[in-house]
Amino acid sequence: MFKIVQMVPALGWGGAQVFCIQLCNELATYPDYEVTLVSLYDHQSNHITKDAPWHGRLIYKYFFQRDIIHPVSISEEVFKGAVKEYGECIKTLIHNGSVAVQPSPKFQSVTDTINSF
Question: Is residue 106 part of a domain?
Answer without folding.
Answer: no
